[in-house]
């Protein structure tokens, strides 16, 4: 996606046909975003849309890799919703520093990176070079609410 300096992250989302969901409330004893200096740590976000998971189950069993990729993209949208709720303006994001992905999967599933690219590709589409980030992607036996994907973020802000 070609970008000019006057495009905002919100405008880029709109151009992609995406809008931010309402920021989800935490379901336990934690905060959705912790701010320290110029960094935001965004707690793991699930692929929730309108309070409902896009999918449930495990990659390699109940969930196809492409659906998992869509879930990771939705997780990143939920990260952005948390950032918007915290800052009031996505234009304050200087850089996506790191994304951490958790993929609920069978022991023989090996397409973790393909699934996590849903979040990574959207980060770059919304923030350009500032969306390029370090990343870890880990296969796990289960996630909260039987979600197939969860994504957390470390973000530098202005």
Task: List its traits.
single chain, 158 residues, alpha+beta, 60s Ribosomal Protein L30, Chain: A, 5-stranded mixed beta sheet, two-stranded antiparallel sheet, 7 strands, globular, disordered N terminus
For the biggest sheet, the summary is: 5 strands, mixed
Please state the CA-atom Rg, rounded to the nearest Å.
15 Å
CATH topology: 60s Ribosomal Protein L30, Chain: A
Enumerate the spans where pLDDT stays under 50 for 5 or more consecutive residues: 1-5
What is the CA-CA span between the terminal residues?
A: 24 Å
User: What is the architecture at the second tier of CATH?
Assistant: 2-Layer Sandwich
The number of helical segments is 3
- Mind telling me the CATH superfamily name? RutC-like
Order of SSEs, N→C?
Answer: HEEEEHEHEE
- The backbone outline, from C-alpha atoms, is globular
CATH class identity: Alpha Beta
Which strand order do you get reading across the main beta sheet? Answer: 1-2-7-5-6
Strand content: 25-35%
* Helical content band: 25-40%
How many structural domains does the protein architecture include?
Answer: 1
Q: Write down the overall mean pLDDT.
A: 95
Extended strand count: 7
Structural class: alpha+beta
Please characterize this protein's 3D structure.
The protein is an alpha+beta fold. The protein has one domain: RutC-like (60s Ribosomal Protein L30, Chain: A). Helices cover 29% and strands 27% of the residues. The chain is built from 3 helices and 7 strands, in the order αββββαβαββ. The strands form 2 sheets. Strands 1-2-7-5-6 form a 5-stranded mixed beta sheet. Strand 5, helix 3 and strand 6 form a beta-alpha-beta unit. Helix 2 runs parallel beside helix 3. It is globular, with a radius of gyration of 15 Å. It starts with 8 loop residues before the first helix and ends with a strand. The N terminus is likely disordered.
């Amino acid at each position: 996606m070609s970008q000019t300096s006057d495009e905002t992250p919100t405008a880029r989302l709109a151009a992609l046909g995406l809008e931010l969901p309402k920021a989800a409330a935490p379901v336990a004893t934690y905060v959705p975003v912790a701010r320290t200096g110029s960094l935001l740590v965004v707690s793991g976000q699930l692929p929730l849309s309108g309070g409902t998971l896009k999918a449930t189950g495990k990659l390699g069993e109940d969930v196809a890799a492409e659906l998992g990729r869509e879930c990771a993209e939705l997780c990143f949208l939920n990260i952005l919703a948390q950032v918007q709720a915290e800052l009031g303006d996505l234009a304050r994001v200087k850089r996506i520093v790191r994304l951490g992905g958790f993929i609920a999967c069978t022991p023989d599933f090996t397409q973790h990176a393909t699934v996590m690219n849903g979040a990574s590709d959207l980060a770059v589409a919304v923030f350009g070079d500032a969306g390029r980030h370090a990343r870890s992607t880990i296969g796990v036996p289960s996630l909260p609410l039987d979600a197939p994907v969860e994504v957390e973020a470390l973000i530098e802000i202005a």
